[in-house]
Amino acid sequence: MQTMDLKTRTPSSLNTLWDRLSRIVPGGPRSPVRAVPGSRVRTFVREELVRQFVLRELLAIRSRAVGLFLILWLSSDLFRPQWAVAVAILHIVTVLINHRSAKCVLDAVERKQDYTRKLRHLSIGMGATGFLWGALLWSFPIVETRTNAEFLVALTSIVAICLMMVAGALYPPAVRSSLVGASLGTLPIAIAIMPVVGPVLLVGFVILMGILLAFASVFLRQARRVALLHRQHIHLSRRLAKVNGALASSMEQLRILAERDSLTQMRNRGAFERAVDELKAEGLPDDRYIVALLDIDHFKQVNDRFGHAAGDAVLEHFGEVLGIWERHGPARIAARWGGEEFIVAARIDHATRPSAVIEELRAILAPPGRNPGWPTGLRVSASIGYCTCGTDFDLQRETSRADGALYRAKNEGRDCYRLAA
Length: 421
Description:
Blueprint: H1 6-9, H2 12-24, H3 39-74, H4 81-110, H5 116-135, H6 148-167, H7 172-197, H8 200-259, H9 269-282, E1 288-296, H10 299-306, H11 308-327, E2 332-338, E3 341-348, H12 354-365, E4 382-389, H13 395-411, E5 417-419
Parallel strand pairs: 4-5
Antiparallel strand pairs: 1-3, 1-4, 2-3
């Protein structure tokens, strides 16, 4: 005899119905929130849903306060005004308690603390709120004609219950608590009028609750997707920030490689020309400038006698010293012009002698370098040619003038400086 398990013997239509009901009930075994992969992602989605739930509950609390003031205003026209006032006062107390609980939950979520107990208190408070909204209907007569005030109170209660369930859709226990509270609150009045209207009211209530649950499930599913997209957005934003940081660092390195000499870390010729243009743009029409070319004396002999490592040490020393000179002045620029030649430009005031600037350069270049590759006993000097000019000077023309003065200094014994004619 062939045996069949329970799932095989269960009709497929019942399995389909159970699957749909499991998906409709928020927080059920097939709820989409449970299908979120990864513990970190699940934690993030849960915290995000709780945060959005609390924010919506805080907004709903404000709307409930407006509804309660409306009920207190209409209470004198109700069949049992004392009962309506008493329920409204209790309702105000629950509103204050729920507001405090929601604030505590939101604060705990922001501080990454445990909020389970506070969230449970908020869910219980929402159940009590639903019960009190339903209890407002107890102040109505059973069979007598309804007044406009009673109609407004009933409409306010029904809308408040629906909004409360929608606001709690992001947290399934809050939906169940609100549903149970509202059902218990409306149960006495439903039983009282059942003989008059028949089972129509019960059927309508069940249909309404089913619609609300289905809407809550859809809302929860969409909220989960939004939370996942928000998580992905944060993750991509962080990665993009890292990529942008790395790109900015790479661009800065490329800029340095494009504008700096690799050996001396000084500006190259192109960067020097751009810096001179900026220096001229910052000056006044009557400012004076000095442009000087420096050439290391007998640099080829240093390479031949001590090796190219010693020559590199000399170039690094000149670059370091000229860099210090540049930083100690308000309007000074230095660069490696090519080979063993360096170039400087500076803005000087009318009281400063151009030769004083050149003497300062010679004084800081005279001491031997402290580089590890500097040979013992090596002394180097530099020949300098310079010229003075005004704000509208042409760098190429003034460089040519300084170069002519430099050749005069080299031809007249080196280790000296000459002014261009």
